[in-house]
Write a structure and sequence with these properties.
887 residues, alpha+beta, two-stranded antiparallel ribbon, single chain
Amino acid sequence: MGTSLIDKGMFGAGLMLIILNVAVLAPMATGGVVSAVEEATATKPLDDICSDSSCKFANADWESSTSPRNFYAWDITNLEEVIAGGEPIYQQVGPVTYDVTSEREIISHDAENGSITYRQFTIYECAEDTEYSCDTEMTNINIAFTPQVIGATHTAIGAVMDITKTGFTSGILGIQIDQFQAGHNTSNYLKYHINSLRGDGEAFFQMTAELIIMDGMFDAFNPVYGENFLDENISYFNATGFEPLWEEVNLRYTFENATGPDGEDLGLLNNLGPLVYASMGEPGSLDELLYDSANSVTMRRANIWGFAHPTDANITLARDWTLYGGMGKLMLDYGGADEDWSTDTTGDSVDASQRVMNLLGLEIDNDIAMNLLFGGDETSEPTGILAVSDSGTSFGLATFLEMDPTEALEFYNLNQTQYQTFFNWSDSWISDSEGLPLILVGGEGYITASEFVNRSFGGEDPINGGYLDNSLNMGGAWGTAFTGSAGKDPIALTPEQSANLLFGPHGLTTQQGVAFFLYGELSGKTPPVNMDTLERAPAVEWNTSLVAELYGIDDDAASALRYLLMGPLFGTLIPGFLEDVFGTGPYLTQSVNNWLLGWHDPVVAYLNSGDSSNMSVGWTSLESNKTYFGSGGVSNGDGTIYTICTGEVDTCDKGEMLFEDGNDQLSWRDDVKENATFGLITPESRAGATGGFITGDGDKIDLSGYGVVGLKCEGESVLKGIPVNECTATMPVLSRPIQAKLLNTDSLLDATPGALPIYFGSDVLIKVEKVSGAIIAGESTSMFYIDTRPRTQQQTPPIMDDMQPVFMIKTSAEIGDEDAAALKSKIITNQDPMMYWTNFDHPADYATIAIYVIGLILILNFTRVTLKGRDTKEEPVTEWTDDSAKV
């Protein structure tokens, strides 16, 4: 029997069904994959974050996710040689692997604007399989030290001036205890005897009380004079007939009204009178008086105290010797010239208790007085009012004045009256209420503590002569080859010029003044600003002439100022101060854990709390761990708040980073930073930075906040069976100094060359699934370099030969096997016209297989019937044949 029409129909139907699947249904099913993927991933960021439609709760795998990160560091292996001036030798350490966990929490979801805001903390834990221990010790630069030196310069200069002021005051108080108290007692002695002689005594002697005292003084001094001041042939002052003839002198003026050249009250009944008289020194010779009276100390005293004889120089000299001997004897009796009284153990010296009584009229136990005056003298922690540290740079007076009164009463064992008396006495000098009459040292006028600072900084020490170390004359070094100023005259600024230089609008004790000055010295030009009005202006060359004009001084003083600031102060004193006081320095040796996750900086702690040992503040780290390593849980901020695009609206790309901590600019390159640095640090937007999807149009990537760079997608490959585009991004290391990010002071310091010359570079490779644009793999290598040139040579951009790597971070991640298989099935398989139905992820897949099955059954049935017909031999059937058969 042959193939029937029905069989042929079955074959045709089956073939048509298969053709229908391949030619019609397959394109329909696969052609919608792209749009289906786009629709399915339109709000992928939101779907990944939220576990419910209202987005009140987060998916657990989004709330906490962990990935490994490898760190490498360069260790300085020859620190002692480096400190001694040698070149550092670096050795790479790593990889040190950490498991980095991101903890997130939803803050808000704004469906209308298509954004979601969340907070993220980062937690670092040393990985169990790390090749190098996270406790590996390594040495490198202390990134905080140079910025601290720069930042502390104005404070340190102010402190130097305060120390100078305190030292002056302490010295004056010492002079008062040593000598002024004797002057007090001498004048009191004279007052007592004059008052005793007035009235009946004057009547009895028929002369004034002052004349009685002066005649008695001469009689007492006459033999002493002969024994001590004349040759052996003359035994008495008046041996040759020289009598002082006091009755011719207005002794009332001498004792009560004598006035110094600047109005000083120098009457002998005033405590200053005897002191000044004695301090002017031994009378001169007769020849000096006769032939050089302008320079004669005798004539100078005679004019002040009114005892010059009009014609006989011998009488004038006799009067001067009498007063000098009398005042000197009384001053000696009261301990005025006893330099060793404080160490006397014989009891012969005037002790502290008596001296305080003489000077201040205050009763105090001697032991208590000695402790108050000299406690901690020549130690590292002086506490006495006259005590000086062993280094000579700190004074107990500052401790006393700054101490809480209640604490001081207990510490010094004083009663309230004693404390208040000493405090008022000390404070009156350091607050400039009192001034020292310079006639005591052969000068003119009075000088306060503040005036001493100004005079000694810009010129000669007006009290002791010479020059202070931390002054423009640098202890006498200015004018020598040592400072490159051989043959130059000493600097001699007026006190007003010094005051302007130190405390004026651009003063070196002001933060802004020093910031401008150091920027100029380190960059070779001014900041781009008018330094008087602070309005933007073109930068100009920083040089000696400009400094002279800025401070109203001559070029020599400006040169001395530049040398002093950059050499003895910025180069030596301030770094040494930080090292001595805080134990910090330009290099640190600590574990990788400390370097990355936290170490305690005593300078920062002091600035934040006034206590360098306060462990609740003062922490620094290179990475932002949730808490500082080794701090016992001190928080490293409140986390970072991100706002990203959810894809719910078309005004932003899904996953795109919109804000970080409310700012659409990099936190260290924003408008605030630009204003603070006068435009030296320009803003950088993070707008368009990808958040997990690539659009193919102007895509950018945020390099962990160090910069935003464009992506180039130029290659293709296959990852776990998934075709991908390969995109790269590069941040050239020489183009990205990150000083402003690491310091982040929002001041000119952030842009000052050499403060922290760290540079960042990064190479990134990401792999993007072609249909969805999803990033399914990525790797990056980020490098941190330091510019090794001296600070003063970093006025020009570095080249790679100047750079030394200090840290490297390597990260990589890719889609998991299960997720890759699922993605391949949903996108790759679903686009295969022949195989799209094999993953059974859509009802159409079941219809497709049903159609295939039915079609195949029909075709197979047709084939079976056809093959059976070929195996059976049949004769032709006719009517004639049939009839014959019947017969």
